[in-house]
Amino acid sequence: MNPRQGPFTALTLTDATTQASPLKGLGVLVTRPEHQADPLCALIEHYGGIAIRCPTLLICKPRDQAPALAFLDRLADYHLAIFTSANAVQYALPAIQERGGVPPTLEIAAIGKATAHALARFGINGCLQPRPDSSSEHLLALPRFQNVAGQSILIIRGEGGRTLLADTLTARGARVAAAEVYRRGRPPVAIGALLERWSRGEIAAVVVTSTESLLNLFDMLGGAGQDYLRDTPLILISARTRQTAADYGCRRLLVAREASDDAITAVLLGLTANPSPVQFGNVI
User: What would the pLDDT profile of 218-238 be if each residue is shown by its tens digit?
Assistant: First the structure.
């Protein structure tokens, strides 16, 4: 399919199983960090698509782990710990387990389903999480976070990023600290080869799962590549990233129902269900 063609009605995965290779020949640029891309790429290939890996985020340990570990040493002092991503879980839980595990009095919250699933892999189930949307805004809207005055809350996150959680909880009277257990960087990418594939029409969709990934991708691509990106269907997982993409001139925007690989794949299946030119994508 030409990258200038758009969707449009999304199939469910159940519907798609009745077709033979419904994504056959569809080139999909997957920008997830390298260690998180395999399941989505496998789904794309299962349905006959071509997964093109292009990680736009590098996730690694902080240059100095001591400050984060000092917070984890004192987990029992907190009423609540909020994990802001699956990466936060992956980088914090081994250190927490080395320190005797999660204190029985500590309440755990996850920013969304993917983070909750990561916690479950470490045996932590039943955590607080917003439904159905995965965002700081929806987490803060939960009843549990309306009366936090005097409580100690630890946010377990990566370096930098949004401060909405900390700012809002502090304004509501909580004592808030942040353990920054990983950092983000920009990996090296062979942009020349990528642009050649785009020029040949081999990239028909792009999956971007964070605003930072989108901004890195724009920086990496340069002028010519940015033009390709603006005209290619862009599959996103949050309204916030959708707005950023729109601000940068992207014209074919689709937002999955949730951040899962199945939901992203369902949107991709929609690209072959009813291909027709569109100016602006539906929010799925």
Answer: 999 998 899 999 999 999 998
Inform me whether the pLDDT recorded for 18 exceeds 70.
Answer: no
- Residue-wise pLDDT tens digits, 239-276: 889 999 999 999 999 999 888 899 999 999 988 775 54
Tens of pLDDT, residue by residue over 123-141, are 999 899 987 667 889 899 9
> In the chain, what are the domains?
13-57+188-273 (3.40.50.10090), 60-184 (3.40.50.10090)
Please give the single-letter amino acid code of residue 197.
R
Tens of pLDDT, residues 175-220: 999 999 999 988 887 899 999 999 999 999 999 999 999 999 999 9
Please give, one letter per residue, the 3-state secondary structure of the chain. CCCCCCCCCCCCHHHHCCCCCCCCCCEEEECCCHHHCHHHHHHHHHCCCEEEECCCCEEECCCCCHHHHHHHHCHHHCCEEEECCHHHHHHHHHHHHHCCCCCCCCEEEECCHHHHHHHHHCCCCCCECCCCCCCHHHHHCCHHHCCCCCCEEEEEEECCCCCHHHHHHHHCCCEEEEEEEEEEECCCCCHHHHHHHHHCCCCCEEECCCHHHHHHHHHHHHHHHHHHHHCCCEEECCHHHHHHHHHCCCCCEEECCCCCHHHHHHHHHHHHHCCCCCCCCCEC
